[in-house]
Amino acid sequence: MRRWLGLAIVTVLVFQFIAVGCQNSGLNGAGDIENVKNEESAEEGSGLSQQPVENEGNEDDKGEVSDEASNAQADPGLNIPIITGLLPSQTGYKWQYFGFVEYAHTMTLDSIQHDQNRIIYNITGEVADMSDGESDKDFSLTITYIVEPTRLIQQKQEQVMMDSNFDEIELIRTPLAAGTSWTQQVTDKLGNQATLECQIEDVTVDTDGKKVYTILYDGQNSDYYEKRKIKEGIGVIFFEKLYIDAEQSFPISYSIAD
After folding, report:
1. Which of 68, 109, 150, 180 could bond to 200 as cystine, CB 3.0-4.6 Å?
2. Where is this region: Disordered (predicted)?
């Protein structure tokens, strides 16, 4: 009887040891799960730390856009200040010209208007009356310079000014360099149309460091021509054209006063 009782006690102790071992094994499993969770959290944190790499890529994209914008701004055909640099910058500026057979006229820059993608210079002036008051002609004149991104246009209203046969003409075009050429259609006071083949013939630097552009406007299928010299900060400093009538033709000109 005692033998069986001892065997039963041993059996109970064995089962207790087995139960304790299982509990310890369960605790270790939970610890492993917690470790896995911690590793996943660490990986997620590592993923967040990589986001600035994407931002660096965006910075590169921004750099490319900036370069394109810079290239567009560098295009002289789109840069209005290149053209405005050929004209005075302040209102009140005065021009005085003298020319062929005691010819003279004066002009004043009255206003400068900014109108969307162009700048307008409004000028008034007067031609010297060489008839001593005997002529019934109107000696006043109005000049409008229109600066657009690629060109300078002259419009005029006058009766006796020694200037172009055409009330609207494109004076110069970018790029402002020798060899630049273009063709334009113009209309005279009688409504006759003509074609001018135009070219910047020469670019020189004056003693004051300012550039002077010489432009030829050659009439297509005609002997008629015009020539101008345009100086930075002043505008037209010399004008010449071929005067043509029924009997003869000869050049007439005027220049800015020193």
Report:
1. 180
2. 38-76
